[in-house]
Amino acid sequence: MKDVMILTGAGQIGMAIARRMGFGKKIVIGDKNLENAKAIAKIMNDAGFDVAAVEMNLSSKESILNLIAEAQKYGEISMLVNAAGVSPSQAPVETILKVDLYGTAVLLEEVGKVIQEGGVGVTISSQSGWRMPALTPEQDELLATTPAEELLSLEMLQPENIRDTLHAYQMAKRCNEKRVMAEAVKWGKRGARLNDIAPGIIVTPLAIDEFNGPRGDFYKNMFAKCPAGRPGTADEVANVAELLMSPAGAFITGSTILIDGGATASYFYGELKPTE
Ligand SMILES: NC(=O)c1ccc[n+]([C@@H]2O[C@H](COP(=O)([O-])OP(=O)(O)OC[C@H]3O[C@@H](n4cnc5c(N)ncnc54)[C@H](O)[C@@H]3O)[C@@H](O)[C@H]2O)c1
Fold first, then answer.
1. Which stretches does DSSP call E strand in 40-133?
2. Is residue 274 part of a domain?
3. pLDDT tens digit string along 170-206?
4. How close is the Cα of 82 to the center of ligand 1, in Å?
5. Is the pLDDT of residue 244 over 90?
6. 10 within domain boundaries
7. What is the rounded radius of gyration, in angstroms, for the C-alpha atoms of the chain?
8. 59 CB under 6 A from ligand 1?
9. How many domains does the chain have?
10. Chain centroid offset of residue 143 CA
11. Phi, psi of 43 (to 5 degrees)
């Protein structure tokens, strides 16, 4: 038996983190697109990792429980990396809320029930959650603590209250941050830690879909004008994950770290500030 890392989302960010932290572990990758999971598993197995690919849909609790059960066949779960998700240009409002908001909440809760003592998890939200104006303290608390199965019934998430897919994505990512805070309390009772990384524009297939989507010019302008003057790479996100998941990050839990080349800073107080 080995310690197991669960990786959801066989994308570039997930792979970069798994390559950084998954040495010596069994890595079980769950992705809705089994071909993606197999492709990443092959790259990693060819590089000396020990990876199995499983079909998994983050929007289904049954599928999440199945992934956890598959992972437990190899040993105890000591790490979770949740890097599955859909972006505003990839899916309708309902799918974004089901995958990015509800699915993430279920995954964090269910893995939190079985994570090994001393275990660590990270989930990937987005700078998008930092752009939206603050919600009320009551709304924040509802996002943090509403039982996962009731989340999608919250009034603030009903179709008449969600403007478009970007708004749905922002609400989902804000919810991820709040959920990580509430879950970190529970994970802590098991001696485990849970954190969140909020990336800016990181070049991956998901971001490339955004560059080619209806908000393409907006995104290209954002990375050109942000203090870093470029988009980021998945390996730079893995640098943050390494801090959060290693003993150097032992005092960090329930936290969200923004890694966006300064785009959010510029959005509020610099050249990226919206003019209208
Ligand atoms: N790339 C960026 O610029 C960026 C910025 C901020 C946040 N993020 C977030 O990072 C995470 C990872 O994105 P990425 O850029 O590595 O994307 P990616 O496209 O490389 O990978 C995402 C993976 O998630 C999988 N997926 C989609 N829906 C799923 C579902 N229902 N169940 C299981 N798997 C599913 C896809 O098949 C894909 O393999 C996402 O949550 C995304 O919102 C990305």
1. 50-55, 77-82, 120-124
2. no
3. 999 999 999 999 999 999 999 999 999 999 999 998 8
4. 9
5. yes
6. yes
7. 18
8. yes
9. 1
10. 16
11. -60, -45
CATH number of the domain residue 142 falls in: 3.40.50.720
Q: Which domain holds residue 166?
A: 4-269
Asked, for residue 275, whether it belongs to a domain, the answer is: no
| Coil vs helix vs strand at 77 | strand
Reading the block at residue 14, the tokens are 């997930």
**Residue 80 domain-assigned (yes or no):** yes
pLDDT tens figures, 21-67: 999 999 999 999 999 999 999 999 999 999 999 999 999 999 999 99
Whether residue 13 has its Cβ less than 6 Å from ligand 1 = yes
Q: Name the active-site residue from 32, 38, 61, 173.
A: 173
Structure tokens at 162: 């969600």
